[in-house]
Amino acid sequence: MFVHKMGSNVRKSLGFILHTYLKCHIFALVLIFLSFFFVLSTTAAIGFLTVSSAVTMSAPFFLGRVIDTIYTSASDAETMTASLTSLCIMLAGVFLCGGACNAARVYLMQSSGQQIVRNLRASIFSSILRQEVAFFDKNRTGELINRLSADTAVVGRSITDNLSDGLRAVAQAAAGVSMMFYVSPSLASFVLLIVPPMAGLAVIYGRYLRSISKRTQDALAQATQLAEERISNMRTVRAFGKELSEVDKYTQKTDHVLNLAKKEAVMRAGFFGVTGLSGNMMILSVLYKGGLLMASQHMTVGELSSFLMYTFWVGISIAGLSSFYSELMKGFGAGARLWELLDRKPEFPLNEGKILPADQLKGQLEFCDVSFAYPTRKEAPIFQNLNLLVPAGSIMAVVGTSGSGKSSMVSLLLRLYDPDAGVITIDGHDVRDLNPYWLRSQIGTVSQEPVLFSCSIRENIAYGATDPDAVTTEDIYRAAKVANAYDFIQMFPKGFDTVVGEKGVLLSFFCEIVSFNHICCFFPKNPKILLLDEATSALDAENEFLVQEALERLMEGRTVVIIAHRLSTIKNADAVAVLDQRRIAECGQPTELLGNRQGLFRKLMEKQAFLQEEQQRALI
Ligand SMILES: Nc1ncnc2c1ncn2[C@@H]1O[C@H](COP(=O)(O)OP(=O)(O)OP(=O)(O)O)[C@@H](O)[C@H]1O
């Protein structure tokens, strides 16, 4: 039974190692991984391992000979000195060679290991970035970051340094046992009776460790998730004075991790305690039985010493094997989630599908009988049989109460999600047939959220370019001028080289970020279609004017969908669509819709005008 279980575990372990290596071959930077250097270094490491293990395991045998030399020629001092000196010089040379091989093995395995971790990280990151947007609704940022950093490190360690040490332990244990049988078969059979129960214990321990390791990695991912969310929303936490309660929540999560780690520690302590005890019992039994064999002239003192040293080595190798097994099981636990990520095929292709000739694209948009619910909230439909036509080159304003689905329309047009029923077309082509890369390159978007990376303003502006390195300073200045943002950027001491913090927090005014954001989104795509999501809602009057002016310039000759509440943004629209009850309830020219006293648009605008009046009165 145990043998069977051991066999299946060994098979699983080998499968796991092979899987890991193969995954890296498939997903990682294949060229580097399969490069001559890697194959060569791994082969060399195995060669060094063989030599260093052979040296280590031959040492007890020769040391036994040294002892016998001392013991048998003790009466003749001259002979003893001569043979002892030559034996010791020879052995010192062999040991030196073994030490050097061992050092080379460790270096080669470590550097190959780092290469594997790097490739694994690159593959996981690439796989994450290829996933559809709905995947990110279901999987939180902190958790994914944890997989990318902590889990890859655990898997990397378990199949590199650990594997190298494990192979060494296997080689030494095998050589040690063989030498024990060579030196004294009867003593070896007696001592090795302890191995089967130890193997059974290792199987039980390995299973437990694998499951607890998976639970620990999951708990750690949850803690990282919480920390990531709170740190990235620090202003909200501070505004609500929630620092202490958030610390409590985080502490609870880390306590959970700690509890699991304690359970693992108890198990480890028990296992290592038992293995240590068995090692000592083995030594004791060798001394006892070996002493008896010496007394009956069946063994020399040198042979008993050699045997004792082999027993030590086998004991150390078994301890090394159990730690190898522990790390491997931890790797199993952490690896399970990584393979899920690596194996996951994105629901939408990233760069496949029809590409229309650029000069033929007119930009007519149409929603035909579209029904949609977010994959994470299938029970709450956002649209049901929604129809809307935006003629090419026209400006369509979409209005509706908060949560009516305005931004969701933008997400569908960008094909961040697919509708559950109906079709969305561009110039009559179903967006699902079009190449998503190409589609998005034809659409300029401005969202409510400022989208800036923590690098210089110059780099942020060039981000949209196909080849950011080819963007000249003149291009960047021109784009900033088009967006009326050149002057405020130049006001920073470092101008366009100012480094923007996370979410652009180093830029002093939010409005500046929003205007700045506009440039980033339009430059340098020159898109046929613009989607503006409440573009000016957070601006003060002066900046709104600047941005509005820039936008009007940019809207010329393009199909534009504006999502805005303000009359000022809507007044330039050719038509207004009012979203209500999961469909377009009204659609027509703004003046026409305002004329309908019972209409939804009129009511929305009245409500807004009333709110503005209230605000003004409050200020007076
Ligand atoms: N990724 C998502 N997953 C699940 N539900 C979502 C997601 N994004 C938005 N929703 C929900 O879909 C509904 C419509 O959201 P949407 O942002 O499209 O409305 P909106 O009209 O643009 O609202 P607002 O004017 O407040 O921006 C809301 O109830 C929102 O909570």
List its traits.
ATP-binding, mitochondrion inner membrane, six-stranded mixed β-sheet, ABC transporter transmembrane region fold, 4 domains, ABC-type oligopeptide transporter activity, 9% strand, 66% helix, transmembrane helix, alpha/beta, Rossmann fold
Query: What is the spatial order of strands in the main beta sheet?
Result: 6-7-8-3-9-10
Q: How many helix segments?
A: 22
Strand content: 5-15%
Total beta strand runs: 10
Calculate the terminal CA-CA distance, rounded to whole Å.
87 Å
Q: Mean pLDDT score, rounded?
A: 78
Structural class: alpha/beta
State the shape: elongated
CATH domain class name of the largest domain: Mainly Alpha
Q: Architecture of the largest domain, CATH level 2?
A: Up-down Bundle
* CATH topology assignment of the largest domain: ABC transporter transmembrane region fold
DSSP helix fraction: 55-70%
**Unreliable parts:** 24-35, 508-516
Q: What can be said about the biggest beta sheet?
A: 6 strands, mixed
Bound ions, cofactors and other small molecules, one mention each: adenosine-5'-triphosphate
Radius of gyration: 36 Å
According to CATH, the homologous superfamily of the largest domain is ABC transporter type 1, transmembrane domain
Can you tell me the number of structural domains? 4
Keywords: ATP-binding, Membrane, Mitochondrion, Mitochondrion inner membrane, Nucleotide-binding, Transit peptide, Transmembrane, Transmembrane helix
Subcellular location: Membrane
Main location: membrane
GO cellular component, one term: mitochondrial inner membrane
